[in-house]
C-alpha cells in the first residue's frame, strides 16, 4: 500500500514537472499575448469615457412627537384621537433611502427644469447613448417632455420612455445609502458621463425628496393649523363688527328713564364679550398647534454638496494595461493547458 502511494506521488511530481517545463517552453507565446492584452487594456483605458461623481450628504433629524403624544394611548381607549402618534409610516426608519430611489422622486427630478425651457429628461436624452437609440428607433425622436405639460397628460410612449430613464438611472447611475447605520447621515451619489447633469440631478433629487418628505410629515398638523387660522380670522372679523356696533349703540342719545332703550347696548356688549372669549381660546389653540407643527417638522441639513469640478472616475493607463495583460496571460495559459491535455487524451 505504501509502495503504491509512493509511486503515485512520484508520478504526480513527474507530471507536474512535465507541465511546468511545457509551459516554460511556451513563454514566448505567453509573453506575446500578455503584451497584446496590456496594449488592449491601455487602449481601453485611453478611450474609455470618464465618469463624474456627484456626492451629496445630508442629515435627517426627525421632529419631536406631539406634546399630546404621551396621552394619545390613554385617550384612544375612550375613543378620542389626540394625534401625536409614533414615527411609523412610509418614512419610518430607513425607508427614506428607498424613497429617494423611488420612481416618484426620480421622475419628479427628471421632469424638473434643467435649463430655461428644457427639462432634465430632454437633456439626458441628448447623450451619446440615447442619440444612437434614436437613430435605431426613429419614434424616439418625437418623444419630449415639455415643462408646461402636466404629468397626467403624458402619452403611453412618454410614460414608457420615462420609465426606461428611471430604470437606467437607478441601475447604472444612482446610489443612496447610509455610511454608518448608527448615524443619521444619508449619502446620495450619482455617477455619469455628464458633469453638469450629475451635479444638477443630485441637487434636485434631494430637494424634491426632502420637500415632499417634510410636507408629508407635517400634513396633518398643517391641516389643523389652517382650520384654526381660518376660524380665528372669521372670529376676528365678527369681533370687529361687534365692537363697532357696541360703540355705535353707546353713541345713541337714549332716554335714561326707559330701561328698554339700553337692551340693545347690553346685547351688543354681551356678544362682544362672548366673541372675545372664543377668539382668545382659538388664538391660544392656534399658537399651540403651530408650536406642535414646528416640533414635528423634520430638520434636514445638507453637509456636503457636489461642487464643480466634480471628481473624475476613470481607469488609469497602468491599471488598464496590468489588467489587460493579466487576463490575456491567464486565458492563454488555460488555452495551452487544455490543448496539451486534449492532445494527450487523443494520442
From TrEMBL:
<feature type="transmembrane region" description="Helical">
    <location>
        <begin position="317"/>
        <end position="338"/>
    </location>
</feature>
<feature type="domain" description="Polysaccharide chain length determinant N-terminal">
    <location>
        <begin position="17"/>
        <end position="109"/>
    </location>
</feature>
<dbReference type="GO" id="GO:0005886">
    <property type="term" value="C:plasma membrane"/>
</dbReference>
<dbReference type="GO" id="GO:0004713">
    <property type="term" value="F:protein tyrosine kinase activity"/>
</dbReference>
<feature type="transmembrane region" description="Helical">
    <location>
        <begin position="29"/>
        <end position="47"/>
    </location>
</feature>
<keyword id="KW-0812">Transmembrane</keyword>
<dbReference type="InterPro" id="IPR003856">
    <property type="entry name" value="LPS_length_determ_N"/>
</dbReference>
<dbReference type="Pfam" id="PF02706">
    <property type="entry name" value="Wzz"/>
</dbReference>
<keyword id="KW-1003">Cell membrane</keyword>
<dbReference type="InterPro" id="IPR050445">
    <property type="entry name" value="Bact_polysacc_biosynth/exp"/>
</dbReference>
<keyword id="KW-0472">Membrane</keyword>
<keyword id="KW-1133">Transmembrane helix</keyword>
<protein>
    <submittedName>
        <fullName>Chain length determinant protein</fullName>
    </submittedName>
</protein>
